[in-house]
Amino acid sequence: MHRSMATNPSSAAGTGIEFNYSELKNVFAGASAPAALACLVKRLGAQRVLLVASNSLSQLTDDFAALQAALGSNFAGLFHDIGSHTPRSDVMRTLEVAREADADLLVSLGGGSIIDACKVVQLAIDQGVTSQAQLIEYAQYGDGTRGSKYADFSLFKGDPKIRQVAIPTTLSGAEFSNNAGVLNTEISAKEGYRGIDLCPQSIIYDPQLSVHTPQWLWLSTAIRSLDHAIEGYCSADSHPFLDGHFLHAMRLFASSLPECKHDPTNLSARSLNQHAVWLACCGLGTVSHGASHGIGYILGSLCEVPHGHTSCVMLPAVLTWNAKQQASRQEAINDALGNKTQNAADSVKALVASLGLPTSLRDVNVTLDQLPGIAERAAKHPVVRNNPRKINDASDVMEILELAW
Question: Whole-model pTM above 0.90?
Fold first, then answer.
């Protein structure tokens, strides 16, 4: 039976809130990636496993060799040429490699770009997609327009032909959703893809393997997931079950990220970072987010700002802009972050600064002359339109951008 993670606060009278779990089967936390992967491959009966890894991780001889050895004769190949923000052309090359290898399981090793690429490859294999033109029929665009087959779940019949095991090496949380973002490099715009069961079947969190991730990337993607927790908590879709996940994610991030910054080899702190992501991403992809996420998508595609950095600079500004409408919620956020005297926006900004991450648009090389174009695009984005304080037009977005400047 296909299920997608969702909340339904406007369900039929008398049914209350409905929460449906995704087809994520299990999470291995604090695991040895080679041992957990060998266990999963045997359990799933996979015969031809394609590793899809970041370029840097594929060159880490000892750790990568251990993963490949864990697959033994089931290793069907490696693909490691996926760029930042998941360019569509890279997805199509991954799809070609998966088909040539006759893969029956994808194993992603890396961050959100790698994991999202594997989701779209799964969608393409399930739907018999062979060309970019066919793929974009399933896309949603930044202005809210959609391809003819976008999220038409009647097209997804039977069990998926291929699934993914994710071994995340960042803290972005892409492994928890049925959504994937793909970059159209011709117009510097992101496309969104959705499908039933596109989330990984299993997740392996190995804190030891994560030590290889550059510190700026590890910490900034943590702020991305803190953004998931905070905008999720501020969403009209949240409810007490989700609130508990989101607030505890904030507490764990506030306590464990400074420890990780102080000592990047602290595996206990790194494992807590991963647990915080697990909590923050409950409902990811279906609980609506707001302007921090939505503007972040534009900054990523148009200005090439890494997604972790977009949350670093936009989340405090959006919290400030939303403050009057969400005073009690922001007071709870501030408390979860361990601050009694600052407001939520200042608390987030102080945490970001303490981690040595950028705190303004200037810090991520966005120029003043780019702001009007960012505002125009963002004002049309469906995620921005879901912001808790209503955003009417580009002038409202400009107010937020000026707060982040």
Answer: yes
